[in-house]
Design a protein that fits this description.
about 0% strand; mainly alpha; 13 helices
């Protein structure tokens, strides 16, 4: 087993996530592209514990420096079809980070991302909203293609998900589409109460303040 893999949680018989976090930080700090490649290749390891640890390390790397995991975007897209729920949300978590630096890659695979979102767990859906929003933020063409889909989701998702998903949509909101965004959220106001209502009101205020980036 390669030295990098021995530092994963599972080979150390650890049940916590600390070894994976430490490894991710270390690979980023040393800009260790060879080490990252070993981790990426073992996202296909037949031992599903190692496979999962590697997915985890990859998305933690992405959270610090998404450019380092961007070359493996296609591997994450493939993992969206996994029958293991944690692999799917782990892959979507990574893709949400990659979207910040390589929105073109995400845009190319919009259908895969939507499909995984439609059938995914809560974490998968959360991260797909981020992946789509960061992609939509990249340029007008992407925004026109994706923003209506995000609004559609916000108008039909469960009330308790509205604030969190509206927040994740914010990167895609700009001066030209903010009115539609605000209108969609205000329609959901009646479904909410308490902390959720307050949180949504705050997001609406943020959107109202948006100026054009030009």
């Amino acid at each position: 087993m390669s030295d990098v893999l021995t530092r994963l949680a599972y080979p150390q018989t650890r049940r916590d996530r600390t070894p994976n976090l430490d490894l991710a930080r270390d690979l980023v700090a040393r800009d260790d592209k060879a080490g990252i490649r070993v981790i990426a290749e073992n996202m296909r390891n037949e031992n599903k514990n190692i496979h999962w640890d590697c997915v985890h390390v990859m998305y933690e790397i992405g959270a610090i420096e998404p450019n380092l995991i961007a070359p493996y975007a296609d591997d994450f897209i493939k993992l969206l079809k996994s029958k293991h729920n944690n692999m799917v949300w782990g892959a979507m978590t990574a893709l949400a980070e990659i979207a910040k630096v390589r929105p073109d890659v995400i845009f190319k695979h919009l259908d895969d991302i939507k499909k995984a979102k439609e059938s995914g767990s809560v974490i998968t859906v959360d991260n797909s909203m981020s992946a789509l929003a960061y992609t939509a933020a990249a340029n007008d063409d992407y925004n026109k293609a994706i923003f209506p889909y995000l609004l559609e989701h916000l108008s039909v998702c469960r009330p308790k998900e509205v604030p969190q998903h509206a927040e994740r949509t914010l990167p895609a909101v700009n001066e030209s589409n903010k009115d539609q965004f605000i209108k969609t959220l205000k329609k959901r106001n009646d479904d909410l109460s308490g902390a959720a209502f307050t949180r949504l009101a705050r997001i609406i205020r943020l959107a109202e303040k948006l100026q054009s980036h030009h």
